[in-house]
């Protein structure tokens, strides 16, 4: 006779299978989590904003002194455009603006067909049409109102009330407000 306790081999085999299965599941979850994180690390801000557009989420463009909320209508390159209900807001994704998701959409969303390919191209559209716009930059306390006269290589020249000219570096521009 042996001094070993009586072991049920079927119970031991079942316990080993469950243990191995649990370890494999945990490993698969870790690999999946790592793959998702790698995908998110490779995304640009434009990619993330385009996803919000496609889902139809309500978002805010945040830049002192202003926060505007609405639905995205376009996103391409360093440009995102929002309909706030009162105005059309063009955001410089390479500028001093933060995007905040306010509410996930239950359905809907849209694609970004047509439209400007960059923030600078959007500014050029405003130059060509000559329509009045408001420029939001965190370096000024107020909205700069006027018409864009020239879109330069790294700045815009804008004439505001009283024929005052503003020279605004492109990276300093957060938002362009187009009233309805």
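-> sequence recovered:
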């Amino acid at each position: 006779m042996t001094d070993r306790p009586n072991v049920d081999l079927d119970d031991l085999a079942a316990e080993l299978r469950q243990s191995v299965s649990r370890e494999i599941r945990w490993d698969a979850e870790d690999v999946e989590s790592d793959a998702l994180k790698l995908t998110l690390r490779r995304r640009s801000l434009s990619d993330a904003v385009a996803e919000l557009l496609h889902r139809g989420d309500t978002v805010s463009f945040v830049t002192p002194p202003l926060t505007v909320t609405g639905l995205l209508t376009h996103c391409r390159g360093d440009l995102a455009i929002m309909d706030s209900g009162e105005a059309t807001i063009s955001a410089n994704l390479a500028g001093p603006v933060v995007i905040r998701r306010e509410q996930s959409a239950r359905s809907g969303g849209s694609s970004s067909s047509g439209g400007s390919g960059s923030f600078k191209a959007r500014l050029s559209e405003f130059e060509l049409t000559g329509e009045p716009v408001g420029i939001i930059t965190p370096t000024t306390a107020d909205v700069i109102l006027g018409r864009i006269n020239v879109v330069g290589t790294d700045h815009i020249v804008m004439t505001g009330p009283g024929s005052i000219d503003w020279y605004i570096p492109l990276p300093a521009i957060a938002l362009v407000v187009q009233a309805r």
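The CA atoms of residues 12 and 154 lie 72 Å apart.
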